[in-house]
Amino acid sequence: MSGGGEDVTDAPEPSAGDSIEPTENDDSAESDDSAEPTAFETTRRDGVVRLRRAGVEWLSSGADGGRWETDAAYNLSIPDGWPRTDLETYVDDRLERAGFDERGPALLTGVDIADARGARCGPVTAIVTAGLSNPAVLPMNPQGGALPDGDLESATDPGDPVGTVNVLVGTTRSLSAGALANLLTVAAEAKTATLLEMTGFPGTTSDAIIVGHDPAGERSEFSGTATVVGAATRACVRDALLEALRAHYDGSEISAPPSLEAAKYGLSTDVAADVFDLD
Predict the structure, then answer these.
(1) CB–CB of 146/272 below 8 Å?
(2) Is the dihedral of CA 186, 187, 188, 191 positive or negative?
(3) Is 161 exposed, middle or buried (0-12, 13-18, 19+ CB in 10 A)?
(4) Which of 207, 213, 211, 220 is nearest to 186 (CA)?
(5) pLDDT along the chain (279 residues), means of 10
(6) C-alpha angle with apex 76: 132 to 61, nearest 5 degrees?
């Protein structure tokens, strides 16, 4: 996990291709002089990346998730040999050590936060980290199997952080309750489509997403793929994920597994469900 450095916020003009890039001397985000005041701010420091805007309502699929009303959401790198512990206490301690004084929903990853990448398009900002050491596949012709007998913690060796695909999405629009929930689905679809195209895997065993909206922004009742918010989210997640994969694997000693069998961890859902007709 990368060390600390001066924090730099990033809020350039909206563009699908803008990304968080590490500086030469620290793991902070580069800054653009042409700040766009309506965009979400991004800051990377001490193994933590923050997506921030005042007054945001978030919906998180991660640990300690659900709905939050707070200014910031986070993604944190966990170090090798990390002892699983009380997650809330661990996150609070990491945020304090990194100099972030706002609590908020947080995701954890075994991927170095220096490999995080971001994208902006229209009213949406996204940040993604991506590692594939624990792919999860879904065969269309399952050969039969059993349901898992536990959670991720029982499926991996203690202290070994696994890769994951974590996605933070924020929109300056004000969304209805249904549109906010649907935005998480839109982000997940974009993540899955991109991963399938680039890796053949739909995801990993520990992927998580946080989406947020500004209740004071321009109102959007819907967030589907045919809307401005939905289309912008798809573009941002796709482009940030592509760059995050390149950042994590290009020029690295590690490589994305070519198959489930070649992965250090991972699983295939081989159990078949009982299908029935409706009355």
Answers:
(1) no
(2) positive
(3) buried
(4) 211
(5) 38 39 37 51 97 98 94 92 79 96 95 96 97 94 87 46 87 98 98 97 96 97 98 98 96 86 90 95
(6) 75
Q: Where are the beta strands (DSSP E) in 131-207?
A: 135-137, 165-171, 174-175, 203-204
- Say how far residue 237 (Cα) sits from the centre of its chain: 9
Q: How far apart are CA 78 and CA 106, in angstroms?
A: 12
Closest CA to 53 of 274, 269, 217: 217
Could you give the CA distance from residue 47 to residue 268 in angstroms, rounded to a whole number? Answer: 31
Which class for 9: exposed (0-12), middle (13-18), buried (19 or more C-beta within 10 A)? middle
Distance CA 144, CA 233 (A): 36
- Predicted TM-score (pTM) of the model is 0.84
Greatest distance between any 2 Cα atoms in the chain: 65
Which fold does the domain 9-268 belong to in CATH?
A: L-amino peptidase D-ALA esterase/amidase (3.60.70)
CA atoms within 13 A on the CB side of 190: 28
Residue listed under structure tokens 């482009």? 239
> Phi and psi (nearest 5°) for 27?
-105, 35
CA distances from 90 to 27, 97, 135 (A): 21, 11, 26
pLDDT at 162: 64
Question: Which one, of 211, 221, 162, 172, lies nearest residue 189 by Cα?
Answer: 211
Tokens standing for residue 260:
């489930």
- Cβ(240)–Cβ(128) below 8 Å: yes
Q: Which residue has 């290009």 as its token pair? A: 250
